[in-house]
Specification:
Elements: H1 3-15, H2 18-25, H3 29-43, E1 48-50, E2 55-57, H4 59-86, E3 92-97, H5 107-116, E4 121-126, H6 129-137, E5 143-148, H7 150-153, E6 159-174, E7 194-197, H8 203-214, E8 220-224, H9 228-236, E9 241-245, H10 246-251, E10 257-261, E11 267-275, H11 282-292
Parallel strand pairs: 3-4, 3-5, 7-8, 7-9
Antiparallel strand pairs: 1-2, 5-11, 6-9, 6-10, 6-11
Length: about 300
């Protein structure tokens, strides 16, 4: 049974004539009659009663016509919906955002993309880089903004990634802290010092732990958080040393904060990542192109 046969049968039922239906369908009457006969043979029952100058539906034909109309309406609705997907007037973009996204103004990317494609629905997941990458590889989200290293991302053959911004880490302390008088801090300075560590889902957490282990440094962890505002507040109150990216540290700095550079080069690179297979899908493809040409402040 073919879709065009449904349309042919409905037109014959409407016009009650093979010739009149063939004229409106712009096909030859013998061809139309042959298609209807072929359909009846496939179904194993006549759909029409042939009169001398007209046709009428059999009981089976009436049921067929009603069902065929519903099917064709559903197909039309489906076609219209798919057309909206292809023209970016419908669909869902599932994006992973870092906890620090607000400080970097990354939500503005989504706002600007929405203005261009107002029919898009968003599903936004806020988490750490490690968790977001796992969600992406599990196909639970379409794309994500994460902190990582290029040598790590390069190992994932399914990933498309783009470097967005480079930054480096600094130490943030209260202005009365002994570190506030230093021009630079080395790793050994943190031995038995009160520090605020990133949460365990943070990529920076693992990097810090490795560096401390390599230098046999054992700081005192008094808090674990990747919430920059909380870390900065605790540092300002003199509770402990907080590690922050230079850009965020300066944006959240108050008169009680002192920012001290680190001798060890700890870079933080933010990447946009998506799956290569997603680039064939209109929403992911359009968003990836949008991010690729977005005017990020690469200097931070």
């Amino acid at each position: 049974m073919q879709i065009h046969q449904l349309r042919y049968a409905l037109k014959v039922a409407e016009k009650k004539s093979f010739s009149a239906a063939a004229k409106e369908l712009f096909i030859a009457q013998p061809s139309l009659s042959q298609q209807i006969l072929k359909l009846e043979q496939e179904l194993g029952i006549p759909l029409f009663v042939r009169h001398s100058k007209s046709v009428s539906l059999t009981e089976a034909g009436e049921y067929f016509a009603a069902s065929a109309e519903r099917i064709l309406n559903s197909i039309e609705q489906l076609s219209e919906r798919m057309d909206k997907f292809s023209r970016m007037q419908d669909g869902t973009l599932r994006v992973g955002m870092l906890w620090i996204a607000g400080y970097l103004n990354y939500p503005q990317i989504l706002t600007d993309f929405y203005r261009r494609y107002p029919g898009i629905t968003y599903k936004i997941t806020i988490d750490g880089s490690h968790a977001l990458l796992k969600l992406l590889l599990a196909r639970s989200i379409n794309s994500a903004f994460i902190i990582s290293h290029e040598n790590i991302l390069r190992k994932e053959e399914d990933l498309y990634y783009q470097k967005l911004q480079d930054d480096y880490y600094v130490a943030v302390v209260n202005k009365t802290h002994p570190f506030a008088e230093k021009n630079i801090l080395n790793i050994e300075d943190f031995h038995e010092q009160n520090i605020i560590m990133p949460s365990r889902d943070s990529a920076f957490r693992r990097e810090l732990e490795q560096i401390f282990d390599q230098h046999f440094v054992s700081p005192k962890i008094v808090c674990e958080t990747s919430q920059s505002d909380i870390g900065m507040l605790l540092a300002a109150q003199g509770l402990a040393v907080y590690f922050s990216s230079n850009s965020i540290a300066h944006r959240l700095k108050t008169e009680d904060h002192v920012i001290v550079p680190l001798e060890t080069d700890l870079h933080r690179t933010i990447f946009y990542v998506t799956l290569k297979e997603s680039l064939d899908y209109p929403i992911a493809k359009a968003f990836t192109a949008f991010v690729r040409h977005y005017p990020f402040d690469c200097s931070m």
